Each structure stands twice: as C-alpha cells, then as structure tokens.
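--- STAGE predict ---
source: upstream dedup step, 1 unique chain passed
mode: sequence only
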Amino acid sequence: MERLFPQLINILDKEADLYQRLLITLGEENQFLVANDTQGLMTVSRRKDTLALQIRSLEESRQLVTEKLARLMNRSISGLTLTDLCERAPEAFADPL
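--- STAGE serialize ---
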C-alpha cells in the first residue's frame, strides 16, 4: 500500500499543474475571442484539447490507484474521500496529500 501513496501524490500534483495550465489557456482563449483572432483561437483550441486529453488520462490513473487503495483498506470507492486517505496514509505521505 505504501507504494500507492507516492503514485497518488504524483498524479494529483500533475493534475493540479494541468488544471493551472488549462486556466491560463482559457484566459488566453478569452483574449482571442475579444480580439476576434481566429488564428489565435485555433492555436489555443488545439492546446485546450491536448490539455483535456492529458487531464483525462491522469484522472483515469488516479481512479485506478484510488480503487486499489480502497480495496486494500476494505472501503467502498464511492465513500472514500481524500480526508480518509490522509488519515490512513503513512505519516510521510499524509502532508503532501
């Protein structure tokens, strides 16, 4: 189980980074819309699509790791929260979660 927590932390860190990049990209998209810049919109649209695919892939990975943790903890995946994981995580991994 201990090896799953670093995996989960890594996935969550990457997801947070991608969502931050998506937020910046959406701001750029708004600027291109206001400026009526179709070329800029096409570029930012492709970047948005790429980010969405990366986020979806990470989310699937996160779900797999969370399902494994739930099974090891004899918990239902639907009732498992991040708080539950923090409480059951070894001390070295609780803070980063």
